[in-house]
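#struct-pred

JT: dropping the chains for the assembly here, can someone run the whole complex?
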Amino acid sequence: MKVAILQMEGTNCEEESYMAFKEIGAEPEYLHLNLLRPGMLEDYDMLFIPGGFSSGDYVRAGAIFAARLKAKAWNELRKFVEAEKPVMGVCNGFQVLIELGLLPGTDGISDVPEAALATNESNRFECRWVHLKKERDSIFSANVPDRIVLPVAHAEGRFIASPRVIEEMEAQRQVVFRYIAPDGSKPDYPWNPNGSINDIAAVVNSYGNVFGIMPHPERAFFWYQHPDWTRIPRNRGDGYYVFESLMRIIEAKNR
Amino acid sequence: MKLRKITDGVYEVSILNATEEELEEINETMGLALSIEEMKKMQEFFREMGREPTDLEIHAIAQGWSEHCSYKSSKPVLRKYIFGIPSEHAMIVMQDDAGVVEFDDEYAYVFKIESHNHPSAVEPYGGAATGVGGIIRDVLNMGAKPMALVDPLFFAPPNYDGKLNPGIKHPRFLLNGVVAGIRDYGNRVGIPTVAGMTYFHEDYVNNILVNAGCLGVVRKDKIVRSMVDAPGIKLVMVGGRTGRDGIHGVNFASKVLSEKSEEEKQAVQLGNPILKEPLIHVVLEANDMGIVYGMKDLGGGGLGSVVGEMCHAGGVGAEVHLDRVLLKEPNMAPWEIWVSESQERMLLAVKEENLPALEKLCKKWDVEMSVIGESISERRLRIYWHGEKILDMPLEFITAGVEYDRPFKIKKVERVQELPPEPKYHNVFLRILSDFNVASKEWIIRQYDHEVQGRTVIKPMQGIIGFESHGDASIIKPVHSSWKGIAITTVANPHIAKLDPYMGALYTVDEAVRNLVAVGARPSSLSDGLNFGNPEREEIMGEFVESCRGLGDAARVLGTPYVSGNVSFYNEAFGKNIPPTVVLMAVGIIDDIRAAVSSDFKRDGNHIYLVGSTAPDMGGSVYYRVLGAKSTVVPEVNINKTKELSEKLLKAMSRGLVRACHDISHGGLAVALAEMSMGGDVGAEIDVGAMQHMRSDFKLFSESPTRWICEVSPEHGEEFASLTGAVRIGTVSGDSLRIRDGARWLFNVSVEKMRTVWRGALRAHLG
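RK: done, full complex below.
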């Protein structure tokens, strides 16, 4: 599986993402937007947009990354999505996918963003671990246990959309992960770290191939990246299973 | 002041025949911050040359001679105590911009701590941000990948209600601005902030301290030196453009603050992390390709310092064409270009044949570069402006600077300790938990991304997710294929140092060791951030000398050298000086991170041990401050014991006997136990009767050095105690912290209650 990890100034989670793909046996490659040429995308089996602060998030998180990507390769990107190849964005990458109109993608690709990742209710950047509940299987979650923990690190992660969009998303079961309290009850702050509507942490589009997630699975790939490994033994980090799901499914498809 | 125009933007300044008053006027008008003796030395130099200097030449000299660049007041003392502590592993010590120490056969770690105090006092957001930016470049220019940031901060209490001097901003405003600056810079540039401290003392009301440290890792064969040692090497500026921001930053840093400081905002640079981030890629990729001959970042002193120091270190000279420097704004005078401290700039020395490769890299990352000159064999500096020579001086004269053996006075401390009546334990314990120097710093810590890069395996907050409390040190795992880890901590104790700078320094080193050992790491090396008042005052210089003596004595015994550091003087305003503030960034090595230990209690029924002995020396303690009781009897450090006990504890840890460990510091035993309970969300029953005989309150709240609390499973208790000489003081159990001294109960507070008080105290004054 050849994975393009997109880079531009300010993306800063590419190395741990690269490492995660490498570890599960995929072939990741860094692809800087400045080096992106026509026809390049189709060489890849998957597109990954890492977290960070692309262009400093100075306009709005992910807005400049999306605009530059659109200007460079919008038609190719559309084709990529329509060919149902996987596209995944983490944190800032999720913000980019929303800005592009690829998510929530209740009806494929939208011309304008139909949701937003707004400023956290706490009104500040926060780095903390959260509990997540898996809501459905997808190529990004099939092998993920029902309950996992992952770290969040963002200032703009509050998923919001119009009631209509939320309703459609829920009806189509597009929510892949929700924040949850440790005892399984509905989360208040800080268990829902940003105030997302319906505690939404990760979504997939209606085709099931574009996935955006606010928490960072690539930072929880190994057991020793968990904050409580001195208390709870694990064989792997919870984020591992996201990448493993992808690999299994792509492999099966290519077989 | 008499000027003669030479060319656009360049003037000749008449100093040869200037009187003392006229020299003073030149000093003032040009903003040089030199002493009259130094002005005279400069005059003498040009008299010998037989010509008047250009304004650029005067600025270049003033920059080179500033306290910030030349360490003129501190160097003789540092040489005596701090430099040259023997070490097996240190590779580059106190030479380049950051120290380099062996990590394993293949890799070295690179680190340094530095102050950014004056700018942050005037412009907290920008000052703090550029402090972070500057320290990253110091590590980067050794060719290392920056992997961790730390940020020790010092303010007056955020609820300060005293009178503020003109131009001085309220500590709460400053704290919020500084935290935001560090957050926005560090997070954007993608380097985790893994450690730090926020410390409160009323004496920082006029002068806050913002120190920032960075650690990186480099393959040993890829270490880059900050020098050029051959002629004909091209000097290339890479990164940001040069502007008028940050002009005279170093001169500014070498003065005391006053109400006029606000007008000197121009001395504060503007940071741009989104320029820095690709710059890091360019530099590291260029280094991987082997095309970087030498490298140095443009920090304090700007281009002037960097060209001078790089060439001086390598025994060559330089020729620079200032008109080739890329500018943010037109019409900058050559002297402004030479001294500007605009951020995000690096100077690379590159062989001519490698220029095309560098150009290609810069293009990929949208980073600008320009070739501004080259090294020459003659050890002179020559600067040209549109073809005209406007500076021509021996490099030695500018760069070697001046040095002073400043007079100092060591104050005698009379040892007195009041003995207050025994308190109501429950109340005083909660008051200590809510003391700003004890209370939770979570609100600050969580605004910094400590997870980015995925290497942080022991986090700054430790325990059950959502219930974490303070840890002692963080650990990063820098090399994917190795289990070896690097532990990082920062420490300072100005309250003790104010009473006794020598013992304060020993105590600070001891605490650094305690913190590293608490997570299972062996202390390896140190970087010293020395923040002091005005060195022209004998008692301040005395504090400096005593602190350095203490640092030297401690480190020599431990075998942990100071490999990098920084001195910040002139932290004085309105006649008041800061307490002597020795900040250490300490690094330890853990051979296998799987053996690391965190501070949170793990399991009901495990036994609790106290390692080390307790003395009733209450000077500088949180307890006495809370009571308002006086003591000048500071805790006594026996550094040989520090070494001996930490070796024993490390041995116990390597045998897997320790389930949790926390050092005892601010607030004493009771606070350490509380933090371990809160992190593990489980209580403990404690009997301090087994400790040496003394008052119960001293047992609970003494801040005696070289002590740890360890959680050990019952079956390992005997082995642990015989290895470390520890005494058992209790059991992990229940949902409250219950402490008695023999038959007498002292207090019983629920974990929930402790958490509410501890979390809420500082939080109520932030944001």
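JT: nice. Residues 63-82 of chain A form the longest helix (20 residues). Chain A has a mean pLDDT of 94.
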